[in-house]
Every structure is written in structure tokens, then in C-alpha cells.
Amino acid sequence: MEHTPNVVTEDGLRSLLADGYHLEVVCTEGAEKRHNSWYGIWVARAVAEDGRPDKMLVTSRSVLKLREFKTIVGLVSFLAEMGCTTASIPLVEGGRERHAASGRVAERRTGPVLVKDE
Hints:
Number of strands: 6
Radius of gyration: 16 Å
Strand content: 25-35%
Organism: Halodurantibacterium flavum
Order of helices and strands: EHEEEEHE
Protein name: Resolvase/invertase-type recombinase catalytic domain-containing protein
């Protein structure tokens, strides 16, 4: 990976997210609904607001192919695995959405949510 500083694997992405990077989802092929599911093509990249270089998510160290997500369900599952607590998905080609993530799977919450009145 020394020769390709602008890419990162999933494990590397987790480290970058824990170090303050954001996860940006980019729609590279507009989404369409087929039956009960949405299909399109999305890629992910690590971006930092402090000028550190952006890094595209690839499938593995040996195969430098962009990791593509072809369903919204797959993309949302990936975002949750990266520690995102919300998902905002661009549906139009060229659309981008940034997500804050911890790089760790979010803890599961069970039971009712209690709201304190003030």
C-alpha cells in the first residue's frame, strides 16, 4: 500500500475513522427502485477536514479495485459496521454524503428510549 497512498482497505478505514476521518459515500450510478429494493452503485472514501489526503476504499491490498455497493441494504449494513449511527444515502449520480463514524460497530440499544423532560 506504500505505492498507493490514496487507497485504504476496510481495516485501514476503521483506523482512519477512529483518527478523525469521516466516511463519505459517493453515488457513481443513480439509484432506482426495483420491487422492494433500491439499486445503484456507491463507493466509499475516507475524508479529513484538516487537509490530510482522501483515501478511496478498495477490496483488498492485493487487488486495488474500488469497493462498490450495489444495494442500499448492503451500503447501510456497511455504514453500521463502520460505527455510523445514521445513514444518508445520495440517490443521484455524483451525490455525496459524509458520515461521522467511530470505526467500530455501534453498541446495540434495546428497550425504550427515555426522554428527560426539562
